[in-house]
Amino acid sequence: MTAQIADDFNSSIRFDSRMYRQDIMGSMAHAAMLGAKGIISNDEAAALIDGLQGVLDDLESGTLTFDMSCEDIHMFVEQVLTERIGDVGKKLHTARSRNDQVALDVRMYLRSEIDEITALLKKLVGVVADKAEEYKTAIMPGYTHLQRAQPISFGHHLLAYAMMLLRDIDRLADCRRRMNCSPIGCCALAGTTYDTDRRFEAERLGFDDICRNSLDGVSDRDFGVELLGALSILMMHLSRFSEEIVLWSSWEFRFVELADSYTTGSSIMPQKKNPDMAELVRGKTGRVYGDLMALLTTLKGLPLAYNKDMQEDKEGLFDACDTVKMCLEVFVGMIATMTARPEVMKKAAQAGFINATDLADYLVKKGLPFRSAYKISGQIVAQCIRENLVLETMPLEVYKTYSPLFEEDLYQEIDLVTCVEKRISEGGTCAASVNAQLEYVRAQL
Question: Of 145, 261, 267, 425, which one is the catalytic site residue?
Fold first, then answer.
């Protein structure tokens, strides 16, 4: 007899009970197939299906609770079913194994999770697009190496994240397509001696195809690794966005302000408004990365077919899905209620001399060699710094001391709005391009 501690160690119902709906729906399809193929009688199949529906209804209404002494959700459902309808309940497991049953449940559960995560992603992309449209003319410094580089619009910057999130949606759809193959009927590893109809069950359960090799059907967890990979990339995108929000909302930047409902105060410093939601998303990214590494490590040395190690797939997968959904839900509200400070952004852009390239280009267009124009622009920037000026406020007579080519039209050329609008290449930061990007994003949604 197995020791109690071993039973507890072996048990998975404390976490796989969340798949009760998938387990029952899969069993109902299996019972229908057994009846259709004459493996059991139609009356027996009907009794099994009715009994399973009753178990499902009672679990969802709360009149039935999980028995944690059962090893797993599969044994719990079968035990309750047999108690209710008698020995016919014991026929449910004909022509299947817990190996293909759990593989079925996990695929069905994760398929549903992908749909929920995708819906949240679409909502977030929509919110980001709305915010980008609101601030499509707000000028801010674009950065490389976290140094002010060239002027862009805040809308353009936000749309970079919309593009990332659209790729996340596409990755999840691709993952779902490969996941949507039914393993039921593979049995323990070699198939069954019964004349089953695997495609009947697959079609009833919304699968596109069946797993073509029974060994692979019960031992494959590629779909879980792939999902965790896609979720890790998604969390990386959210983490990068969070990092910028943390920076932008700091007193050093003051580019944006987060709503009180998505920040926290300090226990001793009343002036503080901490971007804790963004920081938590950034922190939880490592948690999802860990789930991916755990599953990869679990699978890396496993021989075919099923091994008990594979029970370790679920908690990481469930945790990653839960974490991502929670982060997305918080992110939607945080971005929707975030306000920008265009005047602060523009001042930072001016102080960063990020129109110095345009100043040099002005002289080049007047006929000066680029290297000479570059040198003069650098000298002018140096004088602005010494005199606490920006290029837009340097008097024309001072410009003329550096080159007689400078005329009144200079100020139009180095105006930050002009600098942004001159970036006319497709995908760039000018208003027409940002509008085109917005149209693309909304069309994708």
Answer: 145
> Which residues sit opposite 256 in a β-bridge?
340
Distance in angstroms (rounded) separating the CA atoms of residues 34 and 93: 10
> What is the helix (H) or strand (E) element at residue 257, kind and residue range?
strand 256-257
Residue with tokens 């008698």: 86
Looking at residue 302, its amino acid is L
Is the full-model pTM beyond 0.90? yes
* Per-residue confidence in pLDDT tens, the chain, 445 aa: 789 999 889 999 999 999 999 999 999 999 999 999 999 999 999 999 999 999 999 999 999 999 999 999 999 999 999 999 999 999 999 999 999 999 999 999 999 999 999 999 999 999 999 999 999 999 999 999 999 999 999 999 999 999 999 999 999 999 999 999 999 999 999 999 999 999 999 999 999 999 999 999 999 999 999 999 999 999 999 999 999 999 999 999 999 999 999 998 766 676 679 999 999 999 999 999 999 999 999 999 999 999 999 999 999 999 999 999 999 999 999 999 999 999 999 999 988 899 998 999 999 999 999 999 999 999 999 999 999 999 999 999 999 999 999 999 999 999 999 999 999 999 999 999 999 999 999 999 9
Please confirm, yes or no, whether 93 is among the known catalytic residues.
no
Pick from 250, 256, 248, 247: which is nearest to 271 by CA?
A: 250
Token pair, residue 268, equals 């001793």
301 burial type by CB count under 10 A (0-12 exposed, 13-18 middle, 19+ buried): exposed
- Rounded Cα–Cα distance for residues 103 and 409 (Å): 70
Report the Cα–Cα distance between both ends of the chain, in Å, rounded: 57
Catalytic status, residue 156: no
Catalytic residue among 41, 69, 250, 266: 266
**C-alpha span between 210 and 221 (Å, rounded):** 15
Q: Which two tokens stand for residue 322?
A: 């839960």
